[in-house]
Amino acid sequence: MPINFDSALGIHADALRVRSQRAELLATNLANADTPNYKARDIDFQSALKMAASGQTSPSLNTTHQKHIAGSGSSSFDSQLQYRQTMQDSLDGNTVDEQVEQSQFMQNAVQYQASLEFLGSRFQSLTKAIRGE
């Protein structure tokens, strides 16, 4: 009987991919904390995870006419990017709040680690099942 890894691993593989991209985005925000007019961005994790779980890489486009050009999907979750709301305006137009970004980065890292540990235990369970232990 073949093993279906999608059903065995659940949504955690998709969560790792989304959390990894979110970590890159938050690190970019922190790197641009002193860049004038830089706008801090973040991913809407819930909708990006739903999109990843359904196998989509970009939101589907509805064509209402046969001559409409089909949109090409991107490999990232660009459609889920949102600009972060500022708590206090800065003079140079930068919206990065380093404390908020560091907090979000650390929270994302903890959740990423939790998903990794869960997947590790799932792989151990599958290995034991294959060995017949």
Describe what you observe in this structure:
The chain is mainly alpha-helical and about 130 residues long. It has one domain (about 5-55, about 80-130). The protein is about 50% helix and about 5% strand. The chain is built from four helices and two strands; from the N terminus they run ααβαβα. It has helices at about 5-10, 10-30, 45-55, 100-130, and strands at about 40-45, 80-85. It has a two-stranded antiparallel ribbon with strand order 1-2. About 15% of the residues are buried. The mean pLDDT is about 80.
Strand order of the largest sheet: 1-2
The global form is flat
What is the straight-line distance between the termini? 17 Å
CA radius of gyration: 19 Å
| Unreliably modeled segments | none
Q: Please count the beta strands (DSSP E, at least 2 residues each).
A: 2
Contiguous helical run count: 4
Mean pLDDT: 81
H and E string = HHEHEH
Helix and strand content put the structural class at: mainly alpha
What about the largest sheet?
2 strands, antiparallel
Helix content: 40-55%
**Approximately how much beta-strand content do the residues carry?**
under 5%
Tell me the count of domains.
1
Topology:
Blueprint (H helix, E strand, L loop, with lengths): L4 H5 L2 H20 L9 E3 L1 H9 L27 E3 L14 H34 L2
Antiparallel strand pairs: 1-2
Briefly say what this structure is.
The protein has 133 residues and is mostly helical. The chain has four helices and two strands, in the order ααβαβα. It has one domain (5-56, 79-131).
Key descriptive features of the protein:
two-stranded antiparallel ribbon, 133 residues, flagellum, mainly alpha, flat, Flag_bb_rod_N, cilium, 4 helices
